[in-house]
Amino acid sequence: MKAWLQTSRGMLCAWLAALLPLFFVTDFAEMLWLGFTFLALVFSKASRQATFQWVYKSVPVSIAIGLAIGVVVFAIDFPLTPILEEATGTKLNTTQLEGLDQEFGVYVEWMLKGILLGGILEEILFRGFLIGWGAQLLGKRWAWVLVVLIALLFGFGHVNQGVVGQILTGIAGLLFGLTYVACGCKLLPAMIAHGTANALTVSKIYFFGYGMSIETSRTLLGSWGYPFPLM
């Protein structure tokens, strides 16, 4: 088994085995995705070498880029939410965050989840493994295609947040993926970006509440020179 995973065909099959379950949003599919990813990382040295590439240029540069992108993702998220809610006729589902705007313990819990699970683990699994190793297996020119594909799957997987949440996380995933590839497939900038966006989002909800009015959203996005008509 381990020897077969070192072959080109074996590595491609291992990568596909981790990718394909993401097309299905079920608990079983999630188990398959995590299980196949874990097995590939354990038994394939090539997968680990491609996935665990950390620093772009230097640690300060990586952190600075990540912080900037994280702030951009956060700045887009809240004003865009009411626009998407009006356009889709649905609401962003925030039931999983119940109590976040009132209880400090819930705030700490979601800060840890946002940074450790979102900022670190998700970036390793989605960007490092699926994009980084995938681009190595398929060819570097496929990296940008994988950025879009993984962003779509990343958003699709957040079905518990409703259509609006899926769109927002898809946009965030696209920006994290673009950051990852633009930084030479190094994880640290994308990790910092994801963790920063999550930390700012959780903090905003805890200190200021959940939403923003459609009028405020239009005014804010318009003041930034947003190039598309705000419905």
3D architecture notes:
The chain is mainly alpha-helical. It folds into 2 domains: 1-49; 52-223, no CATH class. It has 9 helices and no strands. It has helices spanning 8-19, 27-43, 45-51, 59-88, 104-138, 143-156, 162-182, 187-208, 214-223. The longest helix has 35 residues, at 104-138. The N and C termini lie far apart (55 Å).
The 3D shape can be described as globular
Total tally of structural domains: 2
Secondary-structure element sequence?
Answer: HHHHHHHHH
Low-confidence stretches: 224-231
If you compute it from the alpha carbons, what radius of gyration comes out, rounded to the nearest whole angstrom?
Answer: 18 Å
Number of strands: 0
The percent range for helix content is: over 70%
Largest pleated sheet: none
Descriptive key words:
0% strand; mainly alpha; single chain; 231 residues; 2 domains; disordered C terminus
Architecture blueprint of SSEs:
Layout: H1 8-19, H2 27-43, H3 45-51, H4 59-88, H5 104-138, H6 143-156, H7 162-182, H8 187-208, H9 214-223
Helix pairs in contact: 1-2, 1-5, 2-3, 3-5, 4-7, 4-8, 4-9, 5-6, 5-7, 5-8, 6-7, 7-8
Quick recap of the structure?
With 231 residues, this protein is mainly alpha-helical. Helix content is 73%, strand content 0%.
